[in-house]
Amino acid sequence: MNSAGFPPETVPLQGKYEGFHGQPGGSAGVQYTTVSVPPEPPRDHIIWSLGSFFYSNPCCCLGLAALIYSIKARDRKVIGDMEGAQRYGSTARCLNIWATVLVSIMVLIVFIAAYMY
């Protein structure tokens, strides 16, 4: 009897019951699902390079060089040369870092010099 006081109902199984996979009496095959995720394309840092070009160009033209390498990286990515795109993108990133650091130091020196007077 269940909690309501009625006898339990029995429902016959439809078809043949094979048990759980891997258990005795069941099938021993195991199914795997493989998900292939394409690798993320290399970054070209074009926006950062444009900012460096417009704001950091007095620093030995590092902004212009970074912009050129970013465009080369984007071109390589379009034609499918991911290794070349990664190489050019990495160079653009390094040039952007140098340009940003140098401009930051120059701005800091200008503020300090203005504060001293």
Summary of the model, kept short:
54% of the residues lie in helices and 0% in strands. The protein is an all-alpha fold. 21% of the residues are buried.
Walk me through the structure.
By secondary structure, this protein is mostly helical. It has a domain at 46-116. It is built from 3 helices and no strands. It has helices at 46-55, 62-79, 82-116. Helix 1 packs parallel to helix 3 (82-116). The mean pLDDT is 82. The chain crosses the membrane at residues 46-69, 95-116. Pfam families: CD225. InterPro entries: CD225/Dispanin_fam, IFITM_antiviral_protein. Keywords: Membrane, Transmembrane, Transmembrane helix. Belongs to the CD225/Dispanin family.
Characteristics:
single chain; 117 residues; mainly alpha
List the helices and strands and how they pair.
Layout: H1 46-55, H2 62-79, H3 82-116
Helix pairs in contact: 1-2, 1-3, 2-3
Structural class: mainly alpha
SSE string, helices as H and strands as E: HHH
Amount of helix: 40-55%
Specify the biggest β-sheet. none
Low-confidence parts: none
Number of helices: 3
Distance between the termini: 95 Å
What's the β-strand tally? 0
Mean pLDDT, to the nearest integer, reads 82
Evaluate the radius of gyration: 32 Å
3D shape: elongated
Note the beta-strand portion: under 5%
Transmembrane segments: 46-69, 95-116
InterPro entries: CD225/Dispanin_fam (IPR007593), IFITM_antiviral_protein (IPR051517)
Family: Belongs to the CD225/Dispanin family.
Pfam families: CD225
